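Allow me, if you will, to draw on your knowledge of protein folds for a short while. The matter concerns a single protein, recorded as an amino acid sequence and a row of backbone structure tokens. Could you please explain, in whatever detail you think fit, how the structure tokens follow from the sequence? I remain grateful for any guidance, and I place the record below:

…
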Amino acid sequence: MDVACGVGRNALRLAADGLRVAAIDRDAAKIASLQASAARLGLPVNARVMDLESESVDLGTDAYDLILVVHYLHRPLFPALRRALAPGGLLLYETFTAQQASRGRPTSPDHLLEPGELLRLVAPLEVLRQREGDFEGRFVASVVARKPV
């Protein structure tokens, strides 16, 4: 599942690699663009509009072997992300840290991680890899974490 997928760059890549992909975003125009791209390329992407910041967001239970989140942060979503991972499933998450505000967008603390925060947010998942710092001109924190079997 590609969460907050936008126009689906990552979703399309995963589908092109042979994975069955679900993609969600709250922007209906971006989902429509993703659906058109997937159809044009003949790729099976199940894209749908979903408000990821609603209090009742439900991504399912034990539903996905892989959940990908890039450049999106809504802290209350983490329990739903952990619940949606299948046993042994992987969460790949990368977003901006507070230091990024010194370089431009985003600037709101609501959308920026504090030092070490991503590791706390994914707990109790098992962290396989993580990084935090300045990479390719952006201050980000990233994690690959696995749900116990």
Remarks:
- The mean pLDDT is 96.
- Residues 18 and 43 are 9 Å apart (CA to CA).
